[in-house]
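Researcher: Here's the sequence for the chain we discussed earlier.
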Amino acid sequence: MKKLIFKNKSQEIHIGFNAPENFNLACKKDLDKILFNLVPGQLLWRCTVCNDLHISKNPPKVCPTCFEKDAYIQVSLSEFKKILEVI
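Model: Thanks. This is the structure I predict for it:
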């Protein structure tokens, strides 16, 4: 099963099997637009347990897919893109 792309009104993105609260389904076009036009302060995050990805100033406190608390680490753009190729 392929991970889904979700977006909220603040233009944050989450890629995983489940969405954080107040996120709705989005498409690859939304991801590309936000990823390549990052707003100052937006960071790239990866869950260390299930590899969900998140673009925002702060990561979710609890991963919506694996439910692990404080599992997100900041990653580089190149690492983020490599994970996108796999999922």
